[in-house]
Amino acid sequence: MNRFTGRTVLVTGAGSGLGRAIALAFAAEGASVVAAGRTAASLNETVGLIEAADGTAAAVTADVTDSSRLQSLVRGSVDRFGGLDIAVNNAGILRGTGPVGEVSEEDWDAVLRTNVTGVWLAMKHEIAHMRENGGGAIVNISSNLGAHLRIPNLAAYITSKAAVSALTRAAALDHIHQGIRINAVSPGAADGPMSLRPGETDADRAERVKTENPLGRVAEAGEVAAAVLYLASPAAGAVVGTDLVIDSGSSA
Question: Signal peptide location in the record (predicted)?
Fold first, then answer.
C-alpha cells in the first residue's frame, strides 16, 4: 500500500526500537519521514535503512525537552519536504525504578520532563503548523502502564504515561475543530530490549511471557507500528481521542 505518498511524517525517538519501526513503516508506504532524536548516529542508521529500501527520509537531532529546538524541528521538516501532515510523538525514557518513597527527585523530574512535557511541547509546535495549514494527524505513544495497568516500582514512568493518555484526549477535544486528529497508542511489552529483564535472553523472555499475558507472547514492533499508521490514515477519519492498547491482553 501507499497510503502516505506525498505526506510528510515526523517521528520523535526514531533512532531505535519502536520509533525506528514506525519510521520504516511510514516510509514503506510512501511518506517522506523526518527521523528525530538525540543521537545522530542511530538516526542516520534509521535513515540509511529507509533509503536502502528506496524510501525518503532525513535525520534531525532534537531534544524534546527543548521548546526552541522542537520549533526548529517542525520548521525544518516543512522546509525540507514542503509540509507536516503527520507527527508521531514517541520519544520517552524509563528511569527512577523502585518504590515511590525511594525515587530520587532527579529521576522523577527527568521522566516527567521528557515523557509528559516533551509530548506537550512537541504537540504545541506541531499543532501551531497544522492549524494554519489544513490540519493533520498526531499520534502519541503512551503505554499500557499508566491509565490501563499498574505494577510496583515504576511510579514515575506509570504516572508520566497516564498523563500522556489524558493529555492526548484533552488535546483531541481542543483541536479537532481545526482539522487535527489526535490519538494515542499504548503498547505493552514489545519485541525489543526494553522488555527484557536484567540478564534475560530473547528465549528466556519468550518462555516467561507464555504465562504472563493472555496471548502468550510479546507484540512485534511492526504490529504496534501498524496501529500507528492506521490512526494516522484516512481510514481512521472518525477516530478522535482514542487510546489504542496493544499489550497482548495484559490489561484486558
Answer: 1-27
**Considering the domain boundaries, does residue 2 fall inside one?**
no
- Which residue segment(s) compose the domain that 145 sits in? 8-246
Question: Is the confidence at residue 68, as pLDDT, over 90?
Answer: yes
Give residue-wise pLDDT tens across range 170-179: 999 999 999 9
User: How crowded is residue 49: how many other Cβ atoms within 10 Å of its Cβ?
Assistant: 16
Whether 157 is a known active-site residue: answer: yes
Q: List, for residues 26-51, the tens digit of each pLDDT value.
A: 999 999 999 999 999 999 999 999 99
What's the domain count of the chain? 1
* CATH code, domain carrying 19: 3.40.50.720
Answer whether 192's CB lies under 8 Å from 205's CB. Answer: no
Cell triple for residue 134? 489544513
Measure Cα distances from 199 to 195, 196, 202, 204 in Å: 12, 8, 10, 9
Burial 147-178 (b: 16+ CB within 10 A, else e): bbbeeeebbbbbbbbbbbbbbbbebbeebeee
Contacts of residue 224, defined as CB under 8 A and 6 or more positions apart, other chains included, come to 18, 21, 22, 185, 187, 190, 246
Instruction: Tell me whether residue 251 is in a domain.
Output: no
Judge residue 117's burial from the number of C-beta atoms within 10 Å of its C-beta, 0-12 exposed, 13-18 middle, 19 or more buried: middle
State the sign of the Cα–Cα–Cα–Cα dihedral 132, 163, 64, 18.
Answer: negative
> Is residue 35 a part of any domain in this protein?
yes
